[in-house]
Amino acid sequence: MEEKEIGNLGRSLLVPSVQELAKKSSSRVPPRYVRPHDELLQHRDAEAEPFSSRPQVPIINLSHLSSPDFKASELHKFHSACQHWGFFQVINHGVEESLVERVKRGIREFFNLPMEEKEKYWQTGEDVEGFGQGFVVSEEQKLDWADMFYMVTHPPSLRKPHLFPNLPLPFKDDLEAYSGEMRKLALKILEAMVEALGMEEKEMRELFEEGWQAMRMNYYPPCPEPELVNGLSPHSDGIGLTILLQVNETEQGLEIRNDGAWIPVTFLPNAFVVNIGDMLEVVTNGIYKSVEHRATVNSKEERMSIATFYSPKLEGDLSPAASLVTAERPPLFRRTGVAEFFKGYLSRELIGKSYLDTIRIQRISKRPMEAEEGNKVMRVPCVKDLAKEALSRVPDRYIHAVDIDPIVCNSPSSPQIPVIDLSNLLSCDHHVKEAEVHKLHLASQQWGFFQVINHGVREDLVEKMKKGVKELFDLPMEEKNKLWQKAGEMEGFGQMFEVSEQQKLNWVDVFYVFTLPSHLRNTRLFPNIPLPFREDLEEYSVEVREVARKILGGMAEALGMKKEEMKESFGEGGQSMRINYYPPCPQPQDVIGINAHTDGTALTVLLQVNDVVGLQIKHDGVWVPVLPLPHSFVVNIGDVLQIITNGAYTSVEHRAIINSKMERISIATFYGPGREGYIGPAASLLGPEKPALFKTVSVADYYKGFLSKEGPTKSYLDLMRIHHEEDSPLNIVN
């Protein structure tokens, strides 16, 4: 590829030097560096628990990968790190410590050059290489609190004449040697990936052997308001492999997103931090994943680092390796040119993994609860508007055959669902925790429903959510229409599971939205939710996800599951919300708010918005009304968790009824496995005496089947059952 072509891969608008800006004695950060409110809320993720309790990225001893005695175990560790973390630290890497120290010294001296010297290396506005920032595409865009120096280092023919050749000596010579060592290290790591994945060796070699390499040196000055800025915005790397060297002794600054939370990386001495980029996620067909990460800053110390990016050759094509594509694992990404990928990646603002999604094959990797072809949701009238009319009779389409199951009245003798104190479940007192775990186990076994108190979600946030939900349903119809369901989508205002004109409807309006992970949100819908409700919803979504994960951790302990097994069953997780509005009805005995059903997800966390009873659960053959406690959530087990626990915990039918006088509003948050995973019984819960009761299927296939039915009844779970020869109608576990 000719040298001139590399200059067209990306450009970035010219911005001021943050290092120079930080030298001014200001107590406030300029507005252009202050992040939007919803991004600032996410900083709380990394502060939610003590540092000592946080997991740390795995450590790979590279010398063990070539040792006959240690290779097998280290390769397994390496494979697990690439699958579950996408990040790891490499020790005993073979790069001379004296060279590393010279490069560190050279970078410090380079950033300390006078401004007139730096200007010789500044970006031109037509090219991303040089001093400045990357991914700045508009004058309104928020900027990072950092200066960078970016340049291509390999192949030498693609180096910019005014950059690498003109670097000060001896820094240029040290960087030349360091660049060669980084290339060797990257190829060693890629070789290990080939072996761990069982790939054809030539597939990786042909793509990466004559690969393209660039370096980005980062300088993060101290900041007077560090909590308001990003050193580097959350993103995944649009390359193959990144090898990061921390230049100075600042304790932290790099954070990675793992299991939904931001984890600070503590740098080991004489180690490199390595992470998988988007291109390797494509090549490995999603087996290894690129992971979002960001850089934070502090108020006292500068931080410097050098990231080396190693990628396939520019004239190559990017696609899943043929040896990693099977009938069971079809290609997740379309083929594209490497240069084309770079051009697209570098032409956008740096936002999460958004560019990788542009080459994802959507028929394979839909959001877990997204409508599929064949189960498109039909538009239905707004029940709230219908209820405003002076109806003497409910329209026939809402009249249901009345359920004759007995209902337990609200009397002192009525049974009530168990209450779980989440603070006890997390207690350091062994006896308190053990007792609450036992209570959780019994509630999950015998009821499938329980209320959670002391859950840790701030009361003021809950109250803001309640207020926002009421205002959402009170919007004028012309505003609601902007958020109404579109053909083929389940998200928005409307109802769910309506597939025919003859189908009976529920006496409810629903607003359904996918919330996490954030990069899978409906771009038509979520950004158009009115403020400040959207910001409150953003924060509430993260908080409720943490509640769900803590409950799942307690269940894993109660069941004696392996520590990481429950976590691995869910991966990054998928979360959605259904906000329900049940208007008063003149014939409440003839209609239903929501039909009797079980939830097709793993765990549901329900918040009652107003003080009107309406939820009923089926327990011992009768319908039991649920009386929500103040400041509590009602939690229930869904079909997915019944499958994962191999029937130890059971999803339970429930329904919503209405009344003739008062509206009722609730928010149901559904938490389930991530879209790339599989749903099946946990291996640690199986044995000769406990065979698998359910099939294992992909998350996509599960939801496709679940959503293809007219309603979320328990009947789909029965299709997942494995009927063993010894089973009879009397002894099949339910």
Description:
The protein is an alpha+beta fold and 734 residues long. The chain has 2 domains: 3-359, B-lactam Antibiotic, Isopenicillin N Synthase, Chain (Jelly Rolls), CATH 2.60.120.330; 409-568 and 595-672 and 682-720, Sandwich (Jelly Rolls), CATH 2.60.120. It is built from 20 helices and 28 strands. The strands form 6 sheets. An 8-stranded mixed sheet has the order 1-2-10-7-12-5-4-3. Helix 4 (71-84) links the parallel strand 1 (59-61) and strand 2 (87-91). Helix 7 packs antiparallel against helix 8 (201-208). It is globular. The chain starts with a helix and ends in a 14-residue tail after the last helix.
Q: How many domain modules?
A: 2
Residue share in β-strands:
15-25%
Strand order of the largest sheet: 1-2-10-7-12-5-4-3
What is the number of beta strands? Answer: 28
The number of helical elements comes to: 20
Low-confidence stretches: 1-8, 44-52, 363-367, 369-376, 710-714, 726-734
Structural class: alpha+beta
Q: CATH superfamily assignment of the largest domain?
A: B-lactam Antibiotic, Isopenicillin N Synthase, Chain
Percent in helix: 25-40%
Described by strand count, sense and barrel closure, the largest sheet is: 8 strands, mixed
| CATH architecture verdict of the largest domain | Sandwich
Rg calculated over all Cα atoms: 28 Å
Output mean pLDDT. 83
The end-to-end span amounts to: 63 Å
* CATH class wording of the largest domain: Mainly Beta
Shape: globular
Q: What's the CATH topology label of the largest domain?
A: Jelly Rolls
